[in-house]
Amino acid sequence: MLDRLSPQAPDPLLALIRLHAADPREDKIDLGVGVYRTEEGATPVFRAIKAAEQRLVDEQDSKSYLGPEGDIGFVNALMPYIFGADATMGGRLAGMQTPGGTGAVRLAVALAQKAGVRRIHMGVPSWPNHAQIMADISLEVATFDHANPDGIANLDAVLTAIRSAGPDEAILLHGCCHNPTGVDYTLDQWAAIAEAIAETGVFLIIDSAYQGLGAGLEEDAAGMRLVLAKMPEALIAYSCDKNFGMYRDRVGALYMLAETPAGLDAITSNANALARASWSMPPDHGAAAVRLILRDPDLTKVWLTELDEMRGRMRQVRAALAAAGTAGRIDLTPLGTQNGLFSVVPVSKEEVVRLREEHGIYMAASGRINIAGLTMANLPKFVAALAEVTG
Ligand SMILES: Cc1ncc(COP(=O)(O)O)c(C=O)c1O
Given CB 3.0 to 4.6 Å as the disulfide criterion, which of 169, 264, 324, 355 pairs with 361? Predict the structure, then answer.
């Protein structure tokens, strides 16, 4: 049987990691891998996480099973940060823990499909796994352009997609810090989107994987909250893997907004059943550490400071890129106002290869760059190489 399987293309980013590792040049720059890096190039464990993990080691007295909903203390402690003061939206919102944001997205689309969604509208480019997940569960995808060539979100395209959607269709939006473009909707655009969704009744799924890495924890959630306030129902996939630096510990959650508090039971029981049939229950450790942080005001302060440092560094890099103005044919100024870990520079595949081979600068073939791969020290080299290759 297994002979019938044809080999699948390897993840291109993994191939890039290998090429980068084998490159002996000391001034090589890695803009490929999607993790935060300090000015020194490290991806350290947060101090708040280290402290919480120590507490877990000292105090956790059982590793007995939890349910498919995971650590509900973690799920609930996060809610005010994501949804604001009325964290349960009048008792209409409930959540469950998932294995990372990927598990949350997977569960969200599977639940939507179980409820009757047949097609999902999605802005492109997007995080590549969105399309892979939909293909894996045979959900049809309809795409629209997320951003204009000038690096501004394409409001007309998203509104057209919403208005063209049929009754059994959904739209998937990034909550903030769009991956890969860094282009987020403005609050005015979110308001227009909210109005269009409310008018048409298209089902809304939000993927929020980078809250706090853009303009601030509250600022990054503002657009999403604005649209959710108008929604009778929605699904929100959330990741803590970036804003707590927990990548490999797989910390995520799915939140479900129901039309009425009474409607929540049926929705959450279906999500639990889907989780049970796939991963049974999520890994505990990372979510337990996040719960300890959010329930302890001192640890919360440490975490918020670390998140500020992380965001501050990325804003500094973005400001320096914008200040550089142009590099060859590339206008770098839009990168200054874009958000999060990623942006896309409009380079051709051939230019990506030249940047790698001639300058030791590694980036995805799409031109996506990890902003945190740049530092005040290596940024001039990046700008000069970009100018040479695209000039
Ligand atoms: C848009 C988006 N959603 C979800 C995820 C999944 O994150 P996690 O590592 O928590 O599975 C990512 C990770 O890169 C992402 O970019």
Answer: 355
Which residue type does 164 have? S
Mark whether 87 is an active-site residue.
no
Chunked mean pLDDT (size 10), the chain, 391 residues: 93 89 96 95 97 97 96 98 94 98 98 98 97 97 95 96 96 98 98 97 97 98 97 98 98 98 97 97 98 98 98 98 97 97 97 97 96 97 98 89
Tell me if 343 CB under 6 Å of ligand 1.
no
Residue 335 lies in a domain: yes
125: cis peptide before it, omega within 30°?
yes
Return all residues near 286 (Cβ < 8 A) that are at least 6 apart: 240, 244, 246, 249, 250, 251
Does 70 contact ligand 1 (Cβ within 6 A)? Answer: no
Quick check: CB of 102 below 6 Å from ligand 1?
yes
Q: Are residues 342 and 360 in the same domain?
A: yes
Owning domain of residue 333: 2-45+299-390
Looking at residue 284, what is its pLDDT?
A: 97
User: Six-digit token pair at 153?
Assistant: 């979100």
- Which of 247, 266, 295 represents a domain boundary (last residue)? 295
Confirm whether 52 is domain-assigned. Answer: no
Number of folded domains that form the chain: 2
- The whole-model pTM stands at 0.97
